[in-house]
Specification:
Blueprint lengths: L4 H5 L7 E4 L15 H14 L3 E6 L4 H13 L7 E7 L2 H11 L5 E8 L2 H8 L3 H16 L5 E6 L6 H14 L3 E6 L6 H14 L7 E6 L6 H10 L4 E4 L13 H10 L1 H4 L21 H12 L20 H9 L27 H10 L6 H17 L5 H12 L7 E10 L2 E10 L5 E7 L3 H13 L4 E9 L8 E9 L2 E9 L2 H53 L1
Parallel strand pairs: 1-2, 1-8, 2-3, 3-4, 4-5, 5-6, 6-7, 7-8
Antiparallel strand pairs: 9-10, 10-11, 12-13, 13-14
Helix pairs in contact: 2-3, 2-12, 3-4, 6-7, 8-9, 9-10, 15-16, 17-18
């Protein structure tokens, strides 16, 4: 690992470090669970986006998280790539797991944390301030034995007694923390309070110049971005955020919002960064042209839709309906737009390929759009492209993205949709026939009647798959304009308090609905299989342990007889 990358960052005190937690805190958003391959796809895109640090997961939390961090560290954690980080409680086993998971990365970070507010100490940790102080100091020092780059977080910092916070931060830095993180864990603080807290840390922690001040926010009362901007004015130089603001409860600070706020208003923030007011240099390393694509990718994979009026990446973010606004925009965009849509990668649909285009041109254009497909994925995507070209006169980059996303982001095909056929109308009862191949390779067919064609399809699929579930969300979005547009369907299922999402795109919305449903069921079915495997593993472990105990008793008994 390279020597102390965090301190290298301090050589650029006029830059803001973007720490992305989409794959850790973002994934904790109910229903946003990602598999290992999906996490890797997102991590590659985050690297293209230009984030400085990727918090790839919580290594000790599950074998899946450990595997994801390890794979991301190998594939994305290159010398010129982002720092790869794993979260860890202030516990030795957590820190050891984190260190092992990030080992393949050229630049690795362990991010360890412990609660510091009195309410957390009393009811959650059941420990005194002195005990927590000692644990923090010891565990930061322990993490430092594995990596140079150690981040320490004081959970629930905004409800922590400031004097105690100053004390624990001083000890953590002395023990080797190169970044100290101040989380607004429950989304409680306001901008003026948060700014004052960061200023208090700058003024009252004697060794604060030896570490970077980081902030982590939640949007429970809608102030996460405002809190971060105030923190920047008072000395915070690392911002922990997530794509589309996904995360626990109301979500994390939205990366795209805080980055574009700093981009659009950089003349305002320049003096706080020690720059001349007129400087046009960006305040972050983010390639803003990758923002929209990254937002769509995360939305598609997690099943968490972006509301139309969402700042920066919402469908209406650059739309103008008022006549007065439209008139102004036509005369000069600056009249009603503070940023150019192209600056976030939202360009006019470009007609790039048609039905006569070849496979090589198709591959080349996908690469230009940032997709690296395997030969198998490329072959399947090219067939989809040709089928679409026969149905649509004009094919846009967005159509190509939808095809590529469909082929690269699918769940394992435990059940495969072979056929879907519907009959419906205002004088007919909606009826659907489906045929699926099950994990054993058998073709199963069934039919059902529903309140509408999609309902009939889902009931027919349920008869074949026979996995109990509750459909809690169904949404359809048009990829492009026009009657021949591809439709993207996103659904979410609930089973035993867990939520599973599915996504598919097709010019036939019924087919897309069926495929999205099968994708979600495959996730659910795969999860149930994993649960069963883990239970069997535990049972075998118990049997083995029981055998060892019995063997020990027999041996001991024979010794006594001897």
């Amino acid at each position: 690992m390279s020597p102390n990358p965090a301190m290298n960052k301090q050589l650029q005190p006029d830059r803001i470090i973007i720490f992305d937690t989409t794959l850790r805190d973002g994934e904790q958003c109910p229903g946003a669970t990602l598999n290992v391959d999906e996490k890797l796809v997102i991590a590659r895109q985050l690297a293209r986006l230009g984030v400085d640090v990727i918090e790839a997961g919580f290594a000790f939390a599950s074998p899946g998280d450990f595997e994801a961090i390890d794979k991301i560290a190998k594939a994305v954690g290159t010398e010129d790539g982002p720092v790869i980080c794993s979260l860890a409680r202030a516990i030795k086993a957590d820190i050891e797991a984190a260190a092992e998971a990030i080992k393949p990365a050229a630049k690795g970070r362990i991010h360890t944390f412990i609660s510091t507010s009195d309410i957390h100490l009393e009811y959650q940790l059941k420990k005194s301030r002195a005990e927590v102080l000692a644990i923090a100091e010891e565990m930061v020092a322990y993490a430092k034995t594995f990596v140079d780059d150690v981040e320490f977080s004081t959970m629930d910092a905004t409800r922590t007694d400031p004097e105690y916070l100053y004390q624990i931060l001083e000890h953590a830095i002395a023990a080797g923390a190169t970044t100290i993180n101040i989380p607004d864990t429950v989304g409680y603080t306001t901008p003026s309070e948060f700014g004052a807290l960061i200023k208090g840390i700058k003024d009252n922690v004697p060794n604060i110049d030896q570490a970077i001040i980081s902030v982590h926010g939640h949007n429970d009362i809608g102030l996460a971005v405002a809190n971060f901007l105030e923190a920047v004015k008072n000395g915070a130089r690392q911002l922990e955020c997530a794509i589309n603001g996904i995360g626990e409860r109301a979500g994390n600070t939205a990366l795209e919002e805080v980055v574009m706020a700093l981009h659009v208003r950089r003349q305002y923030y320049n003096p706080f960064m020690g720059r001349p007011v007129e400087s046009e240099e960006p305040l972050t390393n983010i390639d803003t042209r990758q923002i929209y694509k990254t937002s769509r990718l995360v939305s598609n994979l997690t099943g968490m839709l972006v509301q139309p009026n969402k700042a920066i990446v919402g469908a209406n973010a650059f739309a103008h309906e008022s006549g007065i606004h439209q008139d102004g925009i036509l005369k000069n965009k600056l009249t009603y737009e503070i940023m150019d849509a192209q600056s976030i990668g939202l360009t006019e649909n470009q007609i790039v390929l048609g039905k006569h285009s070849g496979r090589n041109a198709f591959r080349t254009r996908l690469r230009e759009l940032g997709f690296e497909l395997s030969e198998t994925e490329l072959n399947k995507a090219f067939i989809r492209f040709k089928e679409l070209a026969d149905k649509k006169k004009e094919i846009s980059d967005w159509d190509l993205e939808a095809i590529a996303n469909d082929e690269t982001q699918q769940t394992p095909e435990l059940f495969r949709l072979e056929l879907v056929q519907v009959s419906c109308g205002n004088q007919a009862r909606p009826t659907a026939t489906v045929c699926l191949t099950n994990p054993a390779g058998e073709e199963l067919m069934d039919a059902a009647i529903g309140t509408g064609p999609v309902d009939a399809v889902y009931k027919a699929i349920n008869r074949v798959v026979n996995v109990p579930n509750e459909l809690i969300e169904f949404s359809v979005q048009s990829v492009t304009k026009g009657i021949d547009a591809m439709g993207e369907v996103t659904i979410r299922l609930r089973y035993d308090k867990r939520v599973f999402s599915g996504h598919a795109a097709n010019t036939d919305i019924i087919v897309a609905s069926a495929q999205a449903y099968v994708n979600a069921l495959n996730r659910l079915y795969g999860s149930l299989q994993g649960d069963q495997t883990r239970r069997l593993g535990r049972d075998e472990s118990r049997v083995t342990e029981s055998d060892r105990t019995e063997e020990s008793v027999v041996v001991q008994g024979s010794r006594e007889k001897a």
